[in-house]
Design goal:
alpha/beta, 14 helices
């Protein structure tokens, strides 16, 4: 049975040292958050953002590696040499046109602060601290690509906090998959000889209509949404191409596969009805539903309460989608929400972005950093949990070796 950690009662000196280490870097962390916010960069374009984070950690004594695999804006910063590897995931990509409307400037700075806080006690805890810079969460899923590249292979637990209008812990997320859709037809004069054309935009219209009808029969929690990226170039020419990007969400990866099959049939119907050809390709990687580790969740909540925050339990609830779900399917992980006043605005809006450098957002950076680092300390100092995390790494290594041998 998982017990609720009371870190301050067990290890008050560690608690104080970690929080002081974070607070001693407060000006740097807030400056980082504000700088990320002022220069938003979208998926796979986060070059300045990655450089800022790398520079801060390099100056603090971390060994920084970048780029990682084929992701030029990813990074891996390491401190210490303990057998227990604890990682903090930093996000720093923004949304096209509306900047840091999901608060990744807060997410990224809080993760950096957590790494710095844990580094202050890394030697005594016999841990290795890692800050993994994970680009393109809003698009192709940088964490999934880093998993495939082996970046998380020796990580025992991964932690991050996400900006939000309120503090919550324990929530799940929706699995998601994205597709790029292209229909190809044949152009013709829209007035003189439209019957000679094959209207690619009509194919997309048929598909969208079919999806609209399908929504009534979708399982609870399933969503389909998309945008048209190409609908032709002139109204007097039958469009020979039409394109869209669509996302499908469901409460679990298993349910996602079922919904995807139904939605794919809608796109196939557009091609069948019009005679256009359909090209459907996966965009990025599918995101799994999030499974937050119970012990780490309670440890984070306990630390947040010590900092004067009151996180609400959202166990059983689902939020949007995150590639942290894939990490949580691989190893123990948490993804709590760190809240600040946004005047009622929710993520992915210009109004939410406008509150990303307020005093409340600044406090979220330092409180999020401290709570994450303290949750990591709780796991490292609990013999049962430490053993569980180390055993998990060994189990994954054994599975990897078996897979390699069988190949």
């Amino acid at each position: 049975m998982t017990t609720t950690p009371s870190l301050h009662d067990k290890t008050p000196s560690l608690h104080d040292e970690v929080t002081q280490a974070v607070l001693s870097r407060r000006e740097q962390l807030i400056a980082l958050s504000h700088s990320l916010h002022a220069e938003p960069e979208t998926a796979l374009e986060e070059h300045r953002s990655a450089t800022k984070i790398a520079a801060l950690l390099d100056a603090a004594g971390f060994t920084v590696t970048r780029p990682l695999d084929s992701l030029p804006t990813a990074l891996d910063a390491t401190y210490g040499s303990g057998e227990l590897v604890l990682a903090f995931c930093a996000e720093y990509d923004a949304l096209p046109g509306i900047g840091h409307a999901c608060g990744h400037n807060v997410n990224g700075a809080a993760a950096v602060g957590a790494a710095l806080g844990l580094a202050a006690v890394a030697d005594r805890l016999d841990v290795t601290v890692r800050l993994i810079g994970t680009p393109a969460e809003e698009d192709i899923g940088g964490k999934v690509l880093l998993i495939e590249a082996g970046v998380f292979d020796d990580v025992a637990a991964a932690l991050m906090a996400h900006a939000a209008p309120e503090d919550t812990v324990g929530a799940s997320s929706l699995a998601i998959g994205a597709w790029d859709i292209t229909y190809r037809g044949r152009p013709a004069h829209a007035a003189l000889a439209p019957w000679e054309g094959v209207n690619a935009l009509d194919a997309l219209t048929v598909a969208q209509t079919a999806i609209g009808v399908l929504r009534q029969q979708l399982p609870p929690g399933s969503l389909v949404h998309g945008i048209v990226t190409d609908g032709g170039r002139a109204p007097n020419v039958i469009p020979d191409t039409a394109a869209a990007r669509y996302e499908v969400r469901a409460p679990s990866v298993e349910q996602l596969r079922t919904v995807q099959r139904r939605v794919r049939a809608c796109f196939e119907a557009g091609a069948l009805a019009t005679g256009a050809t359909l090209e459907l390709t996966q965009h990025g990687r599918d995101f799994a539903d999030l499974r937050q580790d119970p012990f780490l969740t309670e440890a984070y909540a306990a630390a947040a309460r010590c900092l004067g925050r009151t996180p609400l339990s959202r166990h059983g609830a689902t939020t949007a989608s995150t590639d942290m779900g894939n990490v949580s399917r691989l190893l123990p992980a948490i993804h709590p929400a760190i809240g600040y006043d946004t005047a009622g605005a929710s993520q992915h809006t210009v109004e939410f972005a406008a509150h990303g450098t307020t005093p409340g957002a600044d406090r979220a950076v330092t409180d999020g950093a401290s709570a994450l680092a303290l949750a990591a300390v709780a796991a490292a100092t609990d013999e049962e949990q430490r053993s569980r995390l180390l055993s998990g790494v060994e189990h994954r290594r054994a599975e990897l070796h078996r897979a390699t041998d069988s190949a």
